[in-house]
């Protein structure tokens, strides 16, 4: 994996312990472990991709320390009630499939209202999202935010929570803001993501 990613899936991890600050990490894979609580993620202040699918998490919490988080996979956990105030404001892709909270009355409307930048919820695109409205001539709030989006997009090429067709649309919507970097490392990254996607499909 690229130096900016950590993969610890299927390692029987029961808890996220306290770690030293790892500002260079952008992607963290912790799916299919035994994790019961979201905690100690402030060690990754620049995290943009977080996968906690297939754990034992009962509550969405302690994510506000991740202001740059754009992709969050909490599918197939044990979340019964969702507090949308606990979700990072900049999320663009969120997956909560397989949780009881998705059956809450008005669940989808509440999530969409709470996350103005959301492009996809539970593998379904969000019509009329902020990215579509700004596509024609938006001006980013800062140079730094635009650079962060450019760096994020390559890591979203084939995440196992997102279908390929949607990513084509996403790249079109954010056209001109993405560039490839570290091509050889990213190629391996994409292959591993595809492998994870296939394994997850088999398990489900």
UniProtKB/TrEMBL annotation:
Keyword set for this entry? Cell projection, Cilium, Leucine-rich repeat, Repeat
Chief location: other
Keyword Zinc-finger belongs to the record: no
Q: Which Pfam families match?
A: LRR_9 (PF14580)
Q: Which InterPro entries has this protein been placed in? A: Cilia_flagella_integrity, Leu-rich_rpt, LRR_dom_sf
Does the keyword field hold NAD?
A: no
Point to the regions of Acidic residues compositional bias: 142-153
The name of this protein is: LRC46 protein
């Amino acid at each position: 994996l690229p130096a900016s990613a950590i993969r610890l899936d299927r390692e029987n991890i029961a808890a996220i312990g306290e770690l030293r600050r790892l500002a260079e990490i952008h992607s963290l894979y912790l799916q299919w472990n035994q994790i019961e609580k979201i905690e100690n993620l402030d060690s990754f202040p620049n995290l943009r991709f977080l996968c906690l699918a297939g754990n034992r998490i009962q509550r969405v919490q302690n994510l506000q320390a991740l202001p740059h988080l754009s992709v969050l996979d909490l599918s197939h956990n044990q979340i019964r009630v969702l507090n949308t105030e606990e979700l990072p404001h900049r999320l663009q892709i969120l997956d909560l499939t397989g949780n009881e909270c998705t059956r809450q009355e008005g669940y989808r409307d509440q999530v969409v209202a709470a996350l103005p930048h959301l492009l996809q919820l539970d593998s379904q695109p969000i019509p009329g999202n902020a990215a579509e409205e700004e596509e024609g001539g938006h001006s980013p709030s800062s140079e730094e935010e635009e650079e962060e989006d450019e760096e994020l997009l390559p890591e979203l090429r084939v995440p196992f929570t997102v279908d390929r067709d949607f990513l084509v649309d996403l790249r079109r919507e954010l056209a001109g803001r993405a560039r490839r970097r570290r091509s050889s490392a990213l190629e391996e990254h994409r292959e591993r993501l595809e492998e994870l996607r296939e394994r997850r499909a088999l398990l489900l």
